[in-house]
Design goal:
Elements (H helix, E strand, L loop, with lengths): L1 H11 L2 H23 L31 H37 L1 H16 L2 H12 L4 H10 L3 H14 L3 H8 L4 H9 L4 H24 L11 H9 L6 H30 L2
Length: about 280
C-alpha cells in the first residue's frame, strides 16, 4: 500500500498528468451531466432561431434547424468519448495479447502474427473503409469502434512483443516454466503485469487517436449515423458553413481539440513519469 501511495504521489506531481486528467474529467462531466441542466435537448428544433449567433439563450449559437449548438456539442462529446474509450480499450487488449504471445512463444506463432501485423501496417485504412463503405453506412456505431481498433493495435503489438521477448528469459518466468505452469498462466500472471505501465500509457494516447479517427470517418460519412451525432458528424455538417456561420463549425472543433489535447497531455505525462522512474 505504501508503494502504491508513493507511486501515486509521484505521478500526480507531473503537470501533464494533472492537466490531462483534469481536462478529461471536466469534459466527461460536461458531456454526461451538462444535458441534464440545459434548457434545450440536442434534437429540439427552434425554427424561430435558425443559425442564430451566440447569445445568452444559446451560448454557442444554433444550427441549421435551430438546434442549440451547446446541446449538440455535449451530445456529440458523449458519443465521441464513448467511442474513443471503447476503441482504445479494445486496441490495448488486442495489442497486449498478440504482442505477448508472439514474443513469448516465438517460432511459427511469432512469424504468423508479425506477418499479419506487417500486412495491416501497409494496408491503407481509407482504402478498406472505401471498399466496406456500402455495408458500413447502415450499421451500428459499434462497428465503427471495431474498425478504428482494427487499424490501431499493430505498432503497440510490436513494442509489447519486444518486451515479452526480453522477459521470457527472466528468472521468475523460467521458474514458472520449470514448475509446469501453462502458457496462459505465464502470460497472464508473469508477463502482462510487467507491461501494465506501457499499456496504460498506450491506452490513454489511443483515446486521442480514436476520437480523431472517428471524426475523420464521420467527415466522409462513415461514422455515427443520423439522427445521432458525434463531434465528427458535427464538424462535417458545419464545414460548409465555416465562413458564413462560423459558430456551427468552431463549436464542435473546439470540443474535439480539447478532448484530443487532454488525452494526449495525460498520455505524455504518464510516459514522462515512466521514463524518469
Amino acid at each position: 500500500m505504501t508503494g502504491t501511495l508513493v507511486a501515486a504521489r509521484r505521478v500526480v506531481r507531473r503537470p501533464g498528468v494533472v492537466v490531462g486528467t483534469g481536462g478529461l474529467v471536466l469534459l466527461a462531466v460536461a458531456a454526461f451531466a451538462g444535458p441534464l441542466v440545459l434548457s434545450y435537448s440536442h434534437d429540439q428544433q427552434n425554427l424561430g432561431a435558425i443559425l442564430a449567433s451566440p447569445s445568452p439563450a444559446h451560448p454557442l449559437g444554433t444550427a441549421r434547424l435551430g438546434e442549440d449548438m451547446l446541446a449538440l456539442c455535449l451530445r456529440g462529446l458523449q458519443k465521441s468519448l464513448v467511442i474513443g474509450l471503447l476503441a482504445a480499450g479494445l486496441t490495448t487488449v488486442v495489442s497486449a495479447v498478440v504482442g505477448t504471445l508472439a514474443g513469448y512463444l516465438g517460432g511459427l506463432t511469432d512469424r504468423v502474427l508479425m506477418t499479419v501485423v506487417d500486412i495491416l501496417l501497409v494496408l491503407p485504412p481509407i482504402l478498406v473503409v472505401a471498399v466496406l463503405s456500402p455495408a458500413l453506412r447502415e450499421q451500428s456505431w459499434l462497428v465503427l469502434v471495431l474498425l478504428i481498433a482494427g487499424f490501431q493495435w499493430m505498432v503497440t503489438a510490436r513494442v509489447v512483443r519486444a518486451r515479452a521477448r526480453s522477459l521470457r528469459s527472466a528468472g521468475y518466468v523460467v521458474a514458472a516454466e520449470d514448475m509446469g505452469a501453462s502458457t496462459a498462466r505465464i502470460v497472464t500472471r508473469h508477463l502482462l503485469p510487467q507491461m501494465v505501465p506501457l499499456l496504460v500509457i498506450d491506452c490513454t494516447l489511443n483515446v486521442a487517436s480514436a476520437v480523431l479517427a472517428e471524426a475523420g470517418l464521420s467527415y466522409f460519412g462513415f461514422g455515427v449515423q443520423p439522427p445521432d451525432v458525434s463531434l465528427g458528424t458535427l464538424v462535417a455538417t458545419g464545414t460548409g458553413s465555416a465562413l458564413t456561420f462560423p459558430w456551427v463549425f468552431l463549436a464542435p472543433v473546439g470540443f474535439l481539440a480539447a478532448t484530443v489535447l487532454a488525452s494526449a497531455t495525460l498520455g505524455e505525462g504518464l510516459r514522462d513519469d515512466e521514463v524518469h522512474r
